[in-house]
Amino acid sequence: MNNIKKHFLIFAFFAVIPIALGYGISPSWFASTFLGIDAIDINIAHILRAIMCLYIGLGLFWLFSAFNSPYRNPALVTVMVFAGGLVIGRVISCLVDGIPQPILLFYIGLEFVFVPAAYSGRDRTFSTNMI
Length: 131
Hints:
- The protein has helices spanning about 1-25, 25-35, 40-65, 70-95, 100-120, 125-130.
- It is mainly alpha-helical and about 130 residues long.
- The chain has one domain (about 1-130).
- α1 runs antiparallel to α5 (about 100-120), α3 packs antiparallel against α4 and α4 (about 70-95) runs antiparallel to α5 (about 100-120).
- Keywords: Membrane, Transmembrane, Transmembrane helix.
- It holds the Pfam family DUF4345.
- This is DUF4345 domain-containing protein.
């Protein structure tokens, strides 16, 4: 099971890093290429770069945890919270705002897969061992 956790966390790292870099290296390129937004202001660029670093920070924690077994279960919980929070927000946005660009629909699918995958990979005794 530990090997599965390790590989899942490595996969989570490699899944989130390109998304993070896409958001933050050139926010205007990302917005025009994938979202159909011609121009973004400094505030949106600021938000996208902050999101990039949040994603990179979590991704690095997942990669670290993949190679440090005591951190694997907490890392799986952060994958669940991260992906679960994103997918809930995206679903709310779809219901309230309408259907977004295809890349954002792809992210919804990816996040829907990550939550149950991370949940099934964690140790069942994890929550009782934390007390």
